[in-house]
Amino acid sequence: ADVLVMECTGPSLGVGWETAYGQWKGKIVLCLYNEKLAQRSLSAMVAGNPYVKLLRYRTLDDVKQFFNQHLKA
Asked: Tens of pLDDT along 43-53?
């Protein structure tokens, strides 16, 4: 895969590991965080990583626009 896409709205112990692994392998790392559904704040390991392209979204249209911007063929 050329791109790693992660949905980070729910808490997960694996998100930080996946982010680091994608970065180590030189992959594009896209992270989606739904502000409307989140019950906790975004992990600092993701939010503070300048390598991660983060989208704090509210609608599916936000996600589509984000993908169009970062996944141009």
From this structure: 777 888 899 99
pTM of the model: 0.84
DSSP string across 6-68: EE-SS--SHHHHHHHHHHHTT-EEEEEEETTT-SSPPPHHHHT-TTSEEEEESSHHHHHHHHH
Match 């982010």 to its residue by tokens: 19
For 25-34, 40-49, 59-68, which range has the lowest pLDDT when averaged over its residues? Answer: 40-49
Contacts of 45 (CB under 8 A, 6+ apart): 15, 16, 19
